[in-house]
């Protein structure tokens, strides 16, 4: 299992374990992380699973695809480290990943 920490807007840290092959969004939903709405269920057709990847993890996680970039246009307060958590696959290399949940979703 891969450890993923979600930091809520108020600074609460929610530590979880994600199954490799699932997504960061699925892990958030399974663990009741507040602020990850995931209206489309992971189809990359909304921006309600928006997260900010911690700077220490940006290179390992990688950047968004063109389709994901298009959907991020619908997210609030997009930053250089914005990603849709439905598009980040859990894998061994992400053990210890930290993502920050924005104050609101698209």
Short description:
Its cofactor is [2Fe-2S] cluster. The chain is an alpha+beta fold.
Report strand order across the widest sheet: 2-1-5-3-4
- H/E order of the elements? EEHEHHEE
Distance between the termini: 30 Å
Unreliable spans: none
As a percent range, the share of helical residues equals: 10-25%
Major β-sheet annotation: 5 strands, mixed
Shape, principal axes of CA atoms: globular
Structural class assignment: alpha+beta
What is the percentage of strand-forming residues?
15-25%
Organism: Devosia oryzisoli
Keywords: 2Fe-2S, Iron, Iron-sulfur, Metal-binding
Pfam families: Fer2
InterPro entries: 2Fe-2S_ferredoxin-like_sf, 2Fe-2S_ferredoxin-type, Adrenodoxin-like, Adrenodoxin_Fe-S_BS, Beta-grasp_dom_sf
In words, what does this structure look like?
The protein is α+β, with helices and mostly antiparallel strands and 106 residues long. It has 3 helices and 5 strands. It is globular, with a radius of gyration of 12 Å. The termini are far apart. The model has no long low-confidence stretch (mean pLDDT 97).
Topology:
Layout: E1 2-7, E2 13-18, H1 24-30, E3 50-53, H2 58-61, H3 66-72, E4 82-84, E5 97-100
Parallel strand pairs: 1-5
Antiparallel strand pairs: 1-2, 3-4, 3-5
Key structural traits:
Adrenodoxin_Fe-S_BS; 22% strand; alpha+beta; 106 residues; 17% helix; 2Fe-2S_ferredoxin-type; Adrenodoxin-like
């Amino acid at each position: 299992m891969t450890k993923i920490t979600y930091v809520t807007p108020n600074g609460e840290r929610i530590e979880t374990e994600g199954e490799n092959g699932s997504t960061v969004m699925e892990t958030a939903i399974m663990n009741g992380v507040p602020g990850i709405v995931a209206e489309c269920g992971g189809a990359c057709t909304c921006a309600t699973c928006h997260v900010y990847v911690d700077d220490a993890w940006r290179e390992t996680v990688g950047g968004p695809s063109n389709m994901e970039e298009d959907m991020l246009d619908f997210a609030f307060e997009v930053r250089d480290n914005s990603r849709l958590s439905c598009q980040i696959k859990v894998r061994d290399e992400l053990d210890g990943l930290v993502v920050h949940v924005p104050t609101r979703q698209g």
